[in-house]
Every structure is written in structure tokens, then in C-alpha cells.
Amino acid sequence: NLEVGIVGLPNVGKSTLFNAITKAGAEAANYPFCTIEPNVGVVEVPDNRIQVLTDMYHPKKTIPAVMRFVDIAGLVAGASKGEGLGNKFLSHIRETDAIAEVVRCFEDSNITHVAGSVDPIRDIEIINTELCLADLETTQKRADRIAKVAQCGDKAAKAEYEVLKKVLAALEEGEPARKAGLTEDELPHVKDLNLLTLKPIIYIANVSEDEAGDPDSNPNVKRVEEYAAQEGAQVVAVSAKIESEIAELPDDEASVFLEELGLPESGLDKLIKASYSLLGLINFFTAGADEVRAWTIVKGTKAPKAAGKIHTDIERGFIRAEIVSYEDLIACGSEQAAKEKGLVRLEGKEYVMQDGDVTYFRFNV
Ligand code: GDP
């Protein structure tokens, strides 16, 4: 289960957005494997294909893919030195796959801003400084620990040490580790450190209710977009307040509301889609009379590992996958028709799963 950590300064709209996420939440009974804690929201990943497959198979149960959002409270200036919730906060955020940073772009004189005025770039820099400082400490500690061994000529330690030095150089400049220019070969050396500034990041620009239909009209959103562009990060502009109202409505009323605002989808859907693309995620499906289900994998995942998402036994005993692409299946109208046309392929261990593959795994027990 992919997990995105929501961070931001106090009073920027984190709780409002998080409430929208939990209200829109997935039917918990379908996901017994997710323990739901109060600060965790589980939402369905919007994907029209799952409904089309349901109409084709009439299964007893339909289970969409889900994404977890964790509300990580307690980030204030000084968090890396143990201010506020400090360390507890940092240990929560280390476990997430990506960071969504809420920044306040809405003006409202009734709601105080912890730093006195609305300035999203300053807020981003306050937060990013804390994340860099935390990483600096982690990286320095590790470097100190292995320095001696590396100097004595231990090859593995030396290679790691060189990578750590590269990361430290970036962090000391106040730059996130993702800007240290680590190569594919170098990244594994720092994987276990779970560096915060190596995680992919999305900025959530929180605009006011009356800007919800046209968030780009807010000049602060433009500034956040420019800032993010230099970093190669993404921006999703939402109105947390509007999102929490939408989340209370039944689906059909929510669509009408969105239409009135002139929006093609809710901010929450935009956020999930942006997280998907940021993390390089795709869905494959399993479909039958019992269950139609979407599974999340990282692009480039091979068939056995994808099977392991369903059960480790299926990965271990993997024989082959029977696969039809979603498009072919829909064009043929049924699995049987796709089989007759030779569109259900047999794929082996080296097959790289594609988005929309409708899959049946054969395995030895
Ligand atoms: P947090 O401290 O970051 O969790 O912030 P909250 O979600 O508690 O929001 C702080 C205050 O800002 C609350 O009074 C919210 O109602 C208000 N707020 C959040 N989003 C918006 C918004 O889009 N527009 C306006 N006017 N107020 C908002």
C-alpha cells in the first residue's frame, strides 16, 4: 500500500484536507489488511476501468486500488531540533513513499498565519530547511560511523562514504538530497537512511473557496508552480474547504457541484492522480465471477513480483501469467471472445506488466 505523508505549517489547511480525505474514504471493510489509525485516511484511486470490468463480470465484490494518506502533524520551524513534536514527527514521515506539502495560498484575515503573512514560498523554505536539517543529521551520523572503515580500504564502505559525501555537500548548501545528482548505482547506498529530501514531493496549493473553480487566478499558486518547476516537483491546487464540502455529498450531487464550479474532477482525485504519476504507479486488474480488483504496482514491475502483491505464494510458485490488455478485452466484449481472437497472451517471468493488464496468474503450490 502506497502511503503519502501530508505535511505543512500549522493553519495552512492540513486538517481540513485530511478530513475531506477521511470522509471520502474507502469502505474500510474491503481492506482488512490496512490497519486504520486516526491519522490515516484510505481513499480509492479513481479509475473508470474498474466499473467497466464490474459491468462485464458481475462479480460478488469489486475492490478498487487504494492509497493511504497520513496526516503528519507537528512540523514547525525548529522541528529538526526537537521543537514541537519534533522527533516523533520525523519518524512518521520517514516511513512514507512520498510527501505532500500543503501550502497556504488563501487570504483570510480571520485565520492567523504562524509566520504573520501569506507567503507560500517562504513556508516551503521553512519546511524544506527542517527536512534538510533532519537529513543532514542522519547522513552525518552515518558518515561518521563508517569513516574509519572506509579509510582502512574497505571497498563497500568506501563506495558508501563517497555517496554520503555527495549527499552531505547538497544538504550543507540547503539543497534537498534529490538534487545531489545521485546515479542509479549510487542510490542503493543511501536507501536505508530513508532520507526525507530524497522522497518525491507534491505541493498542495490551498486556495480560497471562491478561487476553487479557477485556482490559477491566485498569484500565489503561480509562484508555487514556478518554484516547483525548478525542483521538478508537481503542484496540485485545491480548496481544502471546498474539498471537505464535496466529500460530504453523495456521488451524484458531488458531480453536480463540481460541474457548477466548472471543474472536471475533485481536488482529491487530482491529488491521487498526481501522486500516481509522481511515483510512477500503474494498475493491473484481476477479474472473475468472485471479484474484480485493481492492484497498484510501480511501472517496470515484472509479472512474478506483481503476482506477489496478491500473495507471496503466487510469486514463489509463479508459472506464467495469462494476460489480456484492458483495451483488447473491452473491444472483444468478453474474455471468451478475446481468447478466440488469440488476444489472451501467455507471459513468463521476464514479462514487464503494463497498465491495464487483466491478469490471471498460474502458479504451483
Ligand atoms: P492545519 O493547522 O494546517 O491543520 O489547518 P486547518 O485545516 O485546521 O485550517 C486552519 C484554519 O483555516 C481553519 O479555520 C480552516 O477552516 C481554515 N481554512 C482551511 N482551508 C481554507 C480555505 O480554503 N479557505 C479559508 N477561508 N479558510 C480555510
Automatic annotation (TrEMBL):
Pfam families referenced in this protein's UniProt entry, alphabetically: MMR_HSR1, YchF-GTPase_C
Record gene name: ychF
InterPro entries: ATPase_YchF/OLA1, Beta-grasp_dom_sf, G_OBG, GTP-bd, P-loop_NTPase, TGS, TGS-like, TGS-like_dom_sf
Domain TGS span(s) in chain numbering: 280-363
UniProt GO MF annotations: ATP binding; ATP hydrolysis activity; GTP binding; metal ion binding; ribosomal large subunit binding
Cofactor dependence: Mg(2+)
Residue sites binding ATP per the record: N11, V12, G13, K14, S15, T16
Protein name: Ribosome-binding ATPase YchF
Domain of life: Bacteria
GO cellular component terms, A-Z: cytoplasm
OBG-type G domain segment(s): 2-258
Organism (species): Megasphaera stantonii
Keywords for the protein's UniProt record, in alphabetical order: ATP-binding, Magnesium, Metal-binding, Nucleotide-binding
Gene3D superfamilies per record: 3.10.20.30, P-loop containing nucleotide triphosphate hydrolases (3.40.50.300), TGS-like domain (1.10.150.300)
Role summary: ATPase that binds to both the 70S ribosome and the 50S ribosomal subunit in a nucleotide-independent manner.
Family per similarity comment: Belongs to the TRAFAC class OBG-HflX-like GTPase superfamily. OBG GTPase family. YchF/OLA1 subfamily.
